[in-house]
Write a structure and sequence with these properties.
Elements (H helix, E strand, L loop, with lengths): L10 H54 L1 E3 L9 E6 L6 E7 L2 E6 L6 E4 L2 E11 L9 E11 L5 E6 L10
Antiparallel strand pairs: 1-2, 2-3, 3-4, 4-5, 6-7, 7-8
Length: 168
């Protein structure tokens, strides 16, 4: 009598196949999760960097063309200045509750430059730039900030185009 050949799978073959498919799907899932997570982090960081670059460019334009300081800047908070571009109108750059804003000094209208700011620094360095007398002028204005969720610090050193006496 001829031997019968099995026509289907044995139970152990099905179990091993299911285990292998399970392992493969776990690794494919982890691979996809890591890739998607990396893409989203990259997108978030590049959007934050673009916003920060825009704010730094605007701050640079504003402070480079500053003509005078009617009052001493409040360290790490705000700076009030006269601009060559807007004669007779004082302007103010201010940091308040996570937002860097720009305003004509009437204080009624604030234009946000950047939100979600975790920390902000505003300072200046001074030196005797004109060498004519012993008083010092502002040689550079230093601006720096970090954005919430982004580990990088964005900073800028601005050199005013006119000699501005150091605030007392």
């Amino acid at each position: 009598m001829p031997e019968k050949t099995p026509n289907g799978f044995v139970l152990i073959e099905i179990v091993i196949t299911l285990i292998l498919v399970g392992f493969i799907s776990v690794f494919v899932g982890l691979f996809l999760y890591t890739g998607i997570n990396g893409f989203l982090a990259s997108k978030r960081n590049s959007e934050a960097a673009l916003k920060a670059q825009f704010a730094l460019d605007r701050l640079s334009v504003e402070l480079r063309r500053m003509q005078s300081l009617p009052t001493a800047p409040v360290l790490n908070t705000s700076i009030r200045y006269q601009s060559q571009d807007f004669p007779g109108v004082a302007r103010r750059i201010s940091y308040n509750t996570g937002t860097i804003s720009l305003s004509p000094d009437d204080g009624t209208t604030w234009y946000p430059l950047l939100d979600q700011v975790a920390s902000f620094t505003l300072s200046w360095t001074s030196a005797d730039m004109d060498q004519l007398d012993s008083d010092e002028e502002i040689s550079a204005i230093l601006v720096g900030f970090t954005i919430a969720g982004v580990p990088k610090t964005f900073s800028l050193r601005i050199y005013p185009r006119t000699l501005i006496p150091k605030p007392s």
